[in-house]
Amino acid sequence: MLDRNILEGVVVLHETLYEIHTKKLDGVVFKVDFEKAYDKVKCLQQALRMEGFDQSWRNQADSFTQKESVGIKVNDDIGHYFQTHKGLRQGDPMSPILFNIVVDMLTILIGRAKDDGQVGGLVPHLVDGGVSILQYADDTIIFMEHDSAKA
Fold this sequence. Notes:
Elements: H1 8-22, E1 27-33, H2 44-50, H3 55-66, E2 69-70, E3 73-74, E4 77-78, E5 82-83, H4 94-115, E6 133-136, E7 139-145
Antiparallel strand pairs: 1-7, 2-5, 3-4, 6-7
InterPro entries: DNA/RNA_pol_sf, RT_dom
Protein name: Reverse transcriptase domain-containing protein
Pfam family, one: RVT_1
């Protein structure tokens, strides 16, 4: 998007933490560090369906994430299969795509929980509805109001 800046998330994080600290607000700031999220969740196929991927793409994603050997297809010829250590690894071309799809599902789930009143964002006076989630690369920070019952 042309109207976004790469530092926008960092600025929102800084401003939110500054506001919480200076006004002594209660809240929860939870940093999540993902490790190959797409092959540890059960919703990858559902996420791919929701994003409009057809069955052949979903089958490819399964074969990359579930099998321990991969063959590369070039011009309708499949080369020799080579072994992987539990499917794709960080640095493989499919990793960022599958990671983004899975993390997008997390964002949708948190947004739905927020809309249903199950969680509340922080600093609603700075950001409409309050900040509930920030994502950059593989870093995810979740913000929640301090409410033991909702947590």
